[in-house]
Amino acid sequence: MALLQIQEPGAKPPQREQKFAVGIDLGTTNSLVATKVGSVVETLPSDDGEDLLQSIVHYGDDGIKVGREARDFLVKDNKNTVVSVKRLLGKSQSEIREFGYYLPYKFDAQLPDGDPAIITRHGSIRPIQVSAEILSVLRKRAENFSDKEIDGAVITVPAYFNDAQRQQTKDAAELAGLKVLRLLNEPTAAAVAYGLDAGAEGNVIVFDLGGGTFDVSLLSLRGGVFQVLATGGDTNLGGDDIDRLLQEWLRRKEGLLSDIDDKAVTTLNLLATSLKHRLSFEESVEYAFDSFTGVITRDELKGLCKTPLKRMTSVCRKVLRDAQLEISDIKEVVMVGGSTRMPAVRETVADFFGISPLVSFDPDKVVAIGAGIQAEVLVGNRSSDEGLLLDVIPLSLGLETMGNLVEKIIPRNTTIPVTRAQEFTTYKDGQTALSIHVVQGERELVSDCRSLGRFELRGIPPMVAGVAKVRVSFQVDADGLLSVSAEEVSTGVKAEIAVKPSYGLQASVVEEMLKSSRENAIKDMESRSLSEARVDAERLMEVVKAALLEDAGLIDPKEKSLIENKCELLTNLLRVGTSAEIKQATEDLNLVTVSFANLRMDAQIAKTLHGESIDSIVSE
Ligand code: ADP
Ligand code: MG
Known about the structure:
The protein is built from 18 helices and 27 strands.
């Protein structure tokens, strides 16, 4: 018998069970994990008190090491020490070769191009396995902290990450034993940390300047939906450049331009970085190097940074231009990445946008904290009206139709998750299979978009062209991953694929594709109408030629040759004509075949009326 639970008068109602959720910033150089501690979300430290875990993995004789311990092998054993694995995720071997900088690793040539793996003393290791090692360390750190198993994690990815890169991030997390609640764009996470999702609507710039990379994202926030309007950046701009400029300055100043040994170079590099860091907090600092001593001021450092600072503002200008917005349209600027601690960077940003950037969170931790907050919502610890973020798809998804054309099924910037369906039909009489080619991009022609996958729907019963009804459904889940299915409606024949591309795009391709679609919009319209004209022309000619083969006897030779001439003219135009010319010639051919078509129909009726039953007329 069930007992009714009666609450003691005055006692608090039992609390909703709290789940354990974490946010993870899986970074190129450093990774972090954040979770709710007391009433706020914070990043968690290692046993050594370090919140940042260096994203370095060493495959050694005595096992696998991650972080600072792995870093010690960077020089000693570089072939077995993997750094910046994030740059390899979702890439093919040939794309990795195109990086244009030296990698010490050997890739396993036995594996297909789409499946790169680094040869280590532990065998061939795929990028997702390396990422999984980093994630495992963070998972254990969190589980030790709370003595509980993690119920779910939100993992951040750059806004420009494509399907393949996102999928591999998710695979790596699953390999590390994490249940992924959602992948979240890094700039969106930073904006969430500052609570911008709860505030008023508007456009936000996220300015992320790290050690070697610079990313700018323009987000728009409307009705609880963050939309990435534009992204830009420079994969070779960051704190490292400033270190280099400062080293050169020191050498010039002290006359150390030549004759300097390796040890002195290392010392000088360390000195430059430490001066740079201290100048973020002090107006001027003294230094000593060998027998030299000197002073450098914050203003002097800013003077040295003129070129990189200019590059940063020109990226910002370009991002605004791509989104067709003005500086005055920007409501907030969020600062992310260690190098945004530099006063010179903050001043430059404040001058450019005319507003003070948000800097109150530690720029290293802000992405992980935002991910942790979102994880709390998704795991169910907070109600979803306390900021459930909705993401949008960055590029349109569609299929190839006749004539190399793209039919968009889900347009870009649609909020996900989403399901959309559209009906298609067969092109030829008796066609029993339909090839479905899924593409991504904004352009009108298939060859200008990115191919995501192909599959076939077989077993369509033979019918007259245009009668079969094939319903194609696109489903995008909350992580932006797509699956496609097709069904012939009258028979229920089905086929489906999950679109999981085996390798990805260059990081800048999404942006490039968007840009070229804008530039080519007019050209594309002409290509589209040309393709449509060609398809119509070919379809008509096919019908006419088949009719001539069967029933040429119904017309006199003069009429027959007139029709053949028109067909020939049209065939020539298909190769060289404009869409208008092809349309005109198609219409002409249509006109000269009207009487032939009528004669055929009469003949057909006459034939059927000679002794065939009504049933067979209907079913034919
Ligand atoms: P990444 O995104 O590449 O992983 P981070 O966001 O961790 O990089 O930033 C690393 C960069 O931040 C380094 O170039 C480092 O010198 C710089 N940095 C860290 N602290 C400071 C500081 N106090 N002043 C200036 N630069 C700093
Ligand atoms: Mg970073």
